[in-house]
Write a structure and sequence with these properties.
191 residues, 5-stranded mixed β-sheet, 4-stranded antiparallel β-sheet, elongated, IPT_dom, Plexin, Plexin-A2
């Protein structure tokens, strides 16, 4: 690798004899995997070191997301699928003008939680960036009306529990982890 691909060296996280951290410039179009070469001052044989592993440049791509809709109050755990999504140091996902709260990522997916919609129900454009690279793909997420509960049957239960309940409402299919919380005589139970 040529020494001119290093753009900035981050001295605040540099560790003498152990670690050099730098930001890379854009890779030449004809880049192929190869060892990293480090030169101290001039690039003479006695002033250079070469890595034993190969380094390569990759291009993150996006192929889809799941689910593609969720309640306008936010909180939907969304998985964005693609290739090379674990590359780079940082990732940013925007749903319209709102940041999707980062949860985790691998080379094949980015997981985040949708923020509440600023504009109510409707579709928003999703943008994904890894470091300074904007991933170009046309993905949308649809905010729908928040779920509502219209009826719970039966409206009674025995104290020991185990009574099946049927909840009827709207947009209940977007609830990812449904839970029912019951309070009786100062005691509370979930599900």
């Amino acid at each position: 690798m040529k020494s001119d691909v290093f753009q900035n060296i981050f001295s605040e996280i540099y560790r003498l004899t152990k670690r050099i951290v730098c930001e890379m410039s854009a890779a030449p179009a004809d880049s192929r995997p190869g060892p990293v070469q480090l030169c101290v001052g001039e690039c003479r044989p006695e002033l250079k070191a070469r890595s034993s592993q190969l380094y390569s440049f990759v291009t993150p791509t996006i192929t889809g997301l799941s689910p593609s809709r969720g309640p306008e109050s936010g909180g939907t755990k969304v998985t964005i699928m693609g290739e090379n999504l674990g590359a780079g140091s940082s990732v940013n996902v925007q749903f319209g003008n709102q940041t999707c709260e980062f949860f985790g990522r691998t080379m094949k997916e980015i997981v985040c939680y949708s923020a509440p919609s600023l504009s109510g129900v409707g579709s928003v454009q999703i943008s994904v960036s890894v470091d300074n690279a904007q991933i170009r793909e046309s993905l949308t997420f649809e905010y729908i009306e928040d779920p509502t509960v219209l009826r719970i049957e039966p409206d009674w239960s025995i104290a020991s529990g185990h009574t099946p309940l049927m909840v009827t409402g709207t947009n209940l299919d977007v609830v990812q982890e449904p839970r029912i919380r019951v309070k009786y005589a100062g005691r509370e139970s979930v599900n």
